Each structure stands twice: as C-alpha cells, then as structure tokens.
C-alpha cells in the first residue's frame, strides 16, 4: 500500500520511537480513499472476504497505518477533493497548536488511474488532450492525472530549517466541478497571510491546467499582488495532478527545497502571466512561501512555509 510505505519512510526519517508513535496523531488526506482498489482491483489486493467491507471505505488507509505502525493517538480522514492533502496538513498543525498532540503523521494518497474514474474526469471535461501540461498556456484545457502518496511528520519543535507557520481555508460555494472564474474568496486568504507574514517570496499554486483554473488564478494573483509579483513554482507539470494527494505531495517537494533555502524550478517552457516569473532553475529563497490548493465546488486552502535563517 502506497500510503503505508510513505508513512513508514516518514517515521523512519523522523526517528520517532515506538513509545512516541503510541501518542502520535494520524491524519489522512484523500479524495476517494480506496475507491480505485475495488473499482479496478490492484495486484496484491487483499481479496479475501474478511476485508470486503474495509477495502471499500475511505478510512481503510488510516486503519491500516494505525494497526501496522502502532499509532494510537487522534485519527482523522479528510476527503475534501483535490485540497485534501493540504487540508490534512493544516488539520495536523491545528492539533499541534491546540496541544492535542505533540506529533502528527500526515499522509495523503490518491490512486485514480482506473478506467471508470478516468472516464468520469473525461466526461466532466477536466482532462487535457495534450501530452504536456502548461497550466497558464493559451491552450490550457485540462489536467494530466497522476497517482501519488506523500507523508510529512510534524512535531511541536519543528526541527529543520523549513517550518509550517500558518494554515487557513474558506469556500466559494461554486459549481460542483470548478472554481469561480473571478477567483472567488481565495484572495482573502492571501491578503490575510500577507498582513501577517509579508509579501511572499514565492507561491506554489494549484495550477491544474484547466481553463477555468487558469483564469481564476490569473485574477486571484493580479488582485492580491497588484504591485509585487512573487515568483511562481508550478509542480504539476512534473508530476501530474495527483488529486487528493497533490497538496501534501507538492508541500513535501517544497519543504525539501526549503530545507536548503531554495525553491524548486519550473519545467522549461512553462507559460507565465504578467509580472510574475517562472524560474527554470532552483533559486534561493528569502521569505515566506505560500502553497495553495483548491477542491471541486470552490474549496480553497493556503499553507505558509518559512525558512529559518
């Protein structure tokens, strides 16, 4: 199981002991849980009848990780569509900030590459016909789906150079599959974060590649940053859109670069908007970095990372 594998790797890297794991909180972010597994059975799937019910529910990855790793603290599953991974990270921070946990293992997973789910995305007009993803390009018409899993081990001490300083979210009450063309209420999240942390050095946007998302993000950034143009770092052209895993997977990539006081590059040829830049090589980072995620129906999430000097 992808979720279990990345969870084990994150705990191994964190050095948490078995005794510490007993009091650790576990948060899972996913759009559909195990849906792909029973819509299109995977090799190595647990086919016996005892698991017939658990194999079909969202909470099964959390249950499996809890059992296999002895994680006995608070346990939650977040299923807010494409924002689930970033929302799971935000919920983990809330547990730390409220002292409900000293350690939180945040895991996100989505494995949507089965025929019926791909047909659902295609029927909704969300998939691109292109073999290359250019989210802000003139011909942006959809996303390239991908599978992925990621895990981040959070603790109250936040060791390392990169820190998670802030999380917030809100909703637009938009149509079932899109975001408002005018950007909706995301600019309120950004403007609040700017007041608290200053203008970001960089933004990692959701940038799926759909035409509506491209239009909305242009409006959001031009409204929120009329004078300054932070650099934009688009990660889906490299990894595809991993749906509910994307927010956490992209955060893990960002954090790896931020621990070296750097920002990830963009894929060469990535289109950009107005005054905003898209560096194609890793660049030094000085200041806060904003990570955005959006879920279907107009759900918006923002995390703020920072690099210690």
CATH architecture assignment of the largest domain: 3-Layer(aba) Sandwich
CATH superfamily of the largest domain: Thiolase/Chalcone synthase
Poorly predicted runs are: none
- Overall outline: globular
Number of domains: 2
Can you count the beta strands? 11
Proportion of residues in extended strands: 15-25%
- Biggest sheet layout: 5 strands, mixed
What percentage of residues falls in helices of 4 or more residues? 25-40%
The CATH class of the largest domain is Alpha Beta
Structural notes for this entry:
There is one protein chain. This protein is of the alpha/beta class and 309 residues long. The protein folds into two domains: 2-130 and 147-155, 3-Layer(aba) Sandwich (Peroxisomal Thiolase, Chain A, domain 1), CATH 3.40.47.10; 162-307, 3-Layer(aba) Sandwich (Peroxisomal Thiolase, Chain A, domain 1). It contains ten helices and eleven strands. The chain has helices at residues 2-14, 18-22, 35-39, 60-69, 84-97, 115-123, 186-197, 211-224, 236-239, 246-258, and strands at 25-29, 75-78, 103-110, 148-155, 162-171, 202-204, 231-232, 262-263, 283-284, 289-295, 299-307. The relative contact order is 0.18. The model has no long low-confidence stretch (mean pLDDT 90).
């Amino acid at each position: 199981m992808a979720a279990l594998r990345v969870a084990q790797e994150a705990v191994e890297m964190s050095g948490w002991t078995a005794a510490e794991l007993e009091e650790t909180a576990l948060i899972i972010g996913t759009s559909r849980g195990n849906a792909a597994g029973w819509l299109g059975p995977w090799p190595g799937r647990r086919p016996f009848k005892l698991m017939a019910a658990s194999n079909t529910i969202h909470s099964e990855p959390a249950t499996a990780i809890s059992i296999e790793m002895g994680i006995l603290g608070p346990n939650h599953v977040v299923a807010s569509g494409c924002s689930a991974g970033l929302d799971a990270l935000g919920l983990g921070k809330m547990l730390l900030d409220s002292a409900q946990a000293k350690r939180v293992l945040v895991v996100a997973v989505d494995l949507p590459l089965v025929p019926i789910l791909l047909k659902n995305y295609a029927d909704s007009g969300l998939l691109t016909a292109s073999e290359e993803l250019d989210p802000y390009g003139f011909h942006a018409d959809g996303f390239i789906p991908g599978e992925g899993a990621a895990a981040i081990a959070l603790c109250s001490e936040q060791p390392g150079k990169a820190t998670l300083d802030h999380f917030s979210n809100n909703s637009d009450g938009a149509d079932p599959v899109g975001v408002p063309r005018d950007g909706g209420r995301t600019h309120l999240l950004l403007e609040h974060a700017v007041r608290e942390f200053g203008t970001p050095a960089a933004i990692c946007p959701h940038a799926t590649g759909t035409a509506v998302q491209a239009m909305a993000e242009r409006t959001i950034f031009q409204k929120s940053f009329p004078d300054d143009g932070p650099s934009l770092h688009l990660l889906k052209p490299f990894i595809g859109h991993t749906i509910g895993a994307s927010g956490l997977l992209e955060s893990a990539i960002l954090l790896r670069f931020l621990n070296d006081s750097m920002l990830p590059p963009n894929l060469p040829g990535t289109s950009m908007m107005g005054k905003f830049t898209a560096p194609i090589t890793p660049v030094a980072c000085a200041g806060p970095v904003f990570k955005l995620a959006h879920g279907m129906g107009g759900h918006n999430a923002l995390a703020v990372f920072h690099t210690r000097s």
